[in-house]
TrEMBL record:
Protein name: Auxilin-like protein
PANTHER family: PROTEIN, PUTATIVE-RELATED
Lineage of the organism: Eukaryota, Viridiplantae, Streptophyta, Embryophyta, Tracheophyta
Species annotation: Helianthus annuus
Amino acid sequence: MQFKYQHDLVRDFLFNIFRCAGISAKKEAPVNFLTDPLEGRSTLRPADILVFGWVRGKHVCVDLTGVSPLVGLGSSAFTVGQAALKAASGKVIKHEKAFLDNQHVFIPFAFDTFGHLVPEAVDLLSQVQRVMHSNVMTPRSMEVLFKRLSFAIQKGVAAQLVACLPTISM
């Protein structure tokens, strides 16, 4: 449940940034071509964020995934960002063909609770920053994008920690 809260917090932040930048996007957009490989039928899962006409006129489905950086640590040495990269890779393997077949672009937006972002997420945010700079933002406010994202991730971590605290009866 707490990971869902963090996921939704980051998704809402990202969606609001698109809106502030004047980029046409929809949150929880129905994308009816995503299928469950085991069932072979549409699961009607929505895209976390659908950005209209973003890459060469194609719609982009942004799929957010938040992970703990310590996932799978027992099997190998700790490498910064390894868990987020693995999560993004898994999402690409699972969904990319369906998106390509349906003339959409898929961007995995994976992050870990330490704030590491996969390169695709950094690229997307950098593009949004450029749009913000040319449309609505001042140079000083440009740095706010990554700082606010970091805050949203850390707020999700704090919520997870608070949820684990024992309750005290008075």
